[in-house]
Specification:
- The chain has about 250 residues and is an alpha/beta fold.
- The radius of gyration is 17 Å and the shape is globular.
- The chain starts with 10 loop residues before the first strand and ends with a helix.
Length: about 250
């Protein structure tokens, strides 16, 4: 089943990405290939090189550089702009809510993010017990667990690679990501979240779901799903990448 290309051309999706991310763009392109040109992704970067809870790492997510990158994406006339990064998982989901509100106010373009899409998907799946897989350090992992606990979701198992350098996250192999998912699956979570858009989980999600019988929510796939549903693009052709693409948000179901 292929999506129909709109008469006006592909639906354009604007995506903001950390400067050192090397996974997001090729993984997104691989998923979008199933849509046969119905949608296209266009990327803007701002500098992010380290992930941590210290002030220097946190300062990379100041609003103005991100908004400047979003302003440039607006020139491509996208249907939606997404912050395709997961910083709100440890900084607080409200940081993405504020960012998206600012983007929409400045550009008039609808905005979303990886973590806001995650939360919509988890609500649709009824997730209360979560398995968490990331490349991050233990303190960042703990902060993510605290944020989800405040959101009513318990992290019942976790696996992390202990890395800080954002570029290095892409060097965690698909096989290692899969093994981390298997490890956290032993507690029987409602879903497993691979939280990092520079981590290789999107192409293995469907196979892991078949093996573990647990929904696998990969950050790159989740952000794309959030963009497509926001823009009103049928996600059915992407079902081969996992159960996520069978989900419909309240807006897309209307």
């Amino acid at each position: 089943m292929n999506a129909k290309i709109p008469a006006a051309g592909p639906v354009r999706l604007g995506m903001l990405t950390p400067s050192s991310n090397t996974v997001l763009e090729p993984e997104t392109a691989a998923l979008l290939a199933r849509l046969d040109g119905a949608a296209s992704a266009h990327f803007g970067r701002f500098r992010v090189t380290q992930i941590g809870l210290d002030a220097a790492a946190d300062s990379q997510f100041a609003l103005e550089p991100i908004l400047t990158a979003a302003d440039l994406l607006t020139d491509a006339k996208p249907a939606v702009i997404a912050w395709n990064g997961t910083s709100a998982s440890w900084r607080g989901f409200d940081t993405d809510e504020r960012l998206c509100a600012e983007i929409e106010a400045r550009s008039g373009v609808r905005a979303t993010s990886a973590m806001l899409a995650f939360n919509v998907a988890m609500a649709a799946l009824g997730v209360r017990r979560l398995g968490l897989v990331t490349p991050y350090t233990a303190d960042v992992q703990a902060a993510i667990a605290r944020n989800y606990a405040a959101h009513g979701i318990e992290v019942v198992a976790e696996a992390h690679a202990g890395l800080r350098d954002n570029y290095s996250f892409a060097e965690v192999s698909e096989d290692r990501v899969a093994e981390m998912c298997r490890r956290v699956s032993r507690t029987g979570p409602d879903a497993i979240a691979i939280v990092c858009t520079n981590m290789r989980g999107a192409r293995r999600a469907a196979a892991l779901e078949a093996e573990l019988d647990i929904p696998i929510l990969d950050s790159v796939a989740v952000t794309l799903w959030g963009c497509l549903t926001t823009a009103g693009v049928d996600t059915a052709p992407l079902r081969g990448f996992g159960r996520l693409f069978d989900l419909r948000t309240p807006a897309s179901a209307a």
